[in-house]
């Protein structure tokens, strides 16, 4: 099984079960040999010192060490956790079971983490976007983009789109939003973000209202921040031709229905942001083999997985005459169901 461990005040068993189920379908859609898992601790990591976080993580690992393992359940970082958290889990687990780098993914590269893991989700979003646009006879270099969120996923997505010739018009984060009709200088914005902690005030752009980002005119809208941002209230205002969900669950069911009626294509999160778990799979494979890959191999193999998954998804959508979201769930659930029947578990 595969899934993240999150540290967040609102962690509860129902949420963890729901997220684990989503991971089951996500790994099936991109054809990874995993079921879904999830875990978490109800705490606010921002209020804990590094020492407290380490002690918390080590005690948690002592309680679950016989439930996780390289061929059982492989955790990864999620909300509120990071490569350092994975390093502590690896070290604590190894006290019980011997050195086992494949027990977690998203580790620091110095401890057997994969190169390219940091950029993986954003890179996967770009490959998914590329496959979608190609299907409609378009290319990234001809399109304009608006990105909500400039954390790990949003910033890598913006950087890679820019490298492929795409024009990023608007970017927002928690501090505000910036806009340039001629295209934002993304490398410069990344440096500004590193220096100031936000996108607001970046020279060469004008500050704009972060609440209007989702309704800015563009070819491709990429929500890459929090969930539930596209709702019944604002779905009528979206002026993009495509929505690519880099965040988890950014579109609620009412908004989904409205966007479909307006013929706006939505590429769902359960496929679009699967680059992270896919490169986690590559890390696990490298750890088991004891043979690490170069960055180029990680990137090209990720592109192969995302492109093949898009082709499979498109086939399902054609055969069932359904939306990308419905097609993605049909694809994932059907693969799990077929495996279940083949193992003799079918009713």
Automatic annotation (TrEMBL):
Chain residues that bind substrate: 2, 26, 280
SMART domains: ELFV_dehydrog
All copies of domain Glutamate/phenylalanine/leucine/valine/L-tryptophan dehydrogenase C-terminal, residue ranges: 114-344
Keyword Transport carried by entry: no
Active-site residues per Swiss-Prot or TrEMBL entry: 38 (proton donor)
GO biological process, one term: L-glutamate catabolic process
GO molecular function: glutamate dehydrogenase (NAD+) activity; nucleotide binding
Domain of life (superkingdom): Eukaryota
Important for catalysis, annotated site positions: 78
Record bears the keyword Acetylation: no
Keywords, ordered alphabetically: NAD, Nucleotide-binding, Oxidoreductase
InterPro entries: Aminoacid_DH-like_N_sf, Glu/Leu/Phe/Val/Trp_DH, Glu/Leu/Phe/Val/Trp_DH_C, Glu/Leu/Phe/Val/Trp_DH_dimer, Glu/Leu/Phe/Val_DH_AS, Glu_DH, NAD(P)-bd_dom_sf, NAD_bind_Glu_DH
Any matching Pfam family: ELFV_dehydrog
Family as reported in the entry's similarity comment: Belongs to the Glu/Leu/Phe/Val dehydrogenases family.
Name this polypeptide is given: Glutamate dehydrogenase
Organism: Ceratopteris richardii
């Amino acid at each position: 099984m595969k899934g993240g461990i999150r540290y967040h005040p609102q962690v509860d068993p129902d949420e963890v079960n729901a997220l684990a189920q989503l991971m089951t379908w996500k790994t099936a859609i991109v054809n990874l040999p995993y079921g879904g898992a999830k875990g978490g601790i109800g705490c606010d990591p921002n209020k804990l010192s590094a020492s407290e976080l380490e002690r918390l993580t080590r005690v948690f690992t002592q309680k679950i060490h016989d439930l996780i393992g390289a061929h059982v359940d492989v955790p990864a970082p999620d909300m509120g956790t990071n490569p350092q958290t994975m390093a502590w889990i690896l070290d604590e687990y190894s006290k019980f079971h011997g050195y086992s780098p494949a027990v977690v993914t998203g580790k620091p590269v110095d401890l057997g983490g994969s190169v390219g893991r940091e950029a993986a989700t954003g890179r996967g979003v770009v490959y998914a976007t590329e496959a979608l646009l190609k299907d409609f006879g378009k290319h990234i270099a001809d399109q304009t983009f608006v990105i909500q969120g400039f954390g790990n996923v949003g910033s890598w997505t913006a950087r890679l789109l820019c490298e492929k010739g795409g024009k990023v018009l608007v970017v927002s984060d928690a501090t505000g939003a910036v806009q340039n009709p001629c295209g934002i200088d993304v490398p410069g914005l990344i440096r500004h973000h590193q220096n100031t902690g936000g996108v607001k005030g970046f020279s060469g752009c004008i500050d704009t209202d972060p609440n209007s980002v989702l309704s800015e005119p563009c070819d491709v809208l990429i929500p890459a921040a929090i969930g539930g941002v596209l709702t019944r209230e604002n779905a009528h205002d979206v002026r993009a031709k495509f929505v690519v969900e880099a965040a988890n669950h950014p579109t609620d069911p009412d908004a989904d229905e409205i966007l479909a009626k307006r013929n706006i294509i939505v590429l769902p999160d359960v496929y679009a942001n699967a680059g992270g778990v896919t490169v986690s799979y590559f890390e696990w494979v490298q750890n088991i083999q004891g043979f690490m890959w170069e960055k180029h191999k990680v990137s090209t193999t990720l592109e192969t997985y995302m492109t093949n998954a898009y082709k499979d998804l498109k086939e399902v959508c054609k055969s069932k005459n359904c939306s990308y979201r419905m097609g993605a769930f049909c694809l994932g659930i059907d693969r799990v169901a077929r495996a279940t029947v083949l193992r003799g578990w079918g009713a």
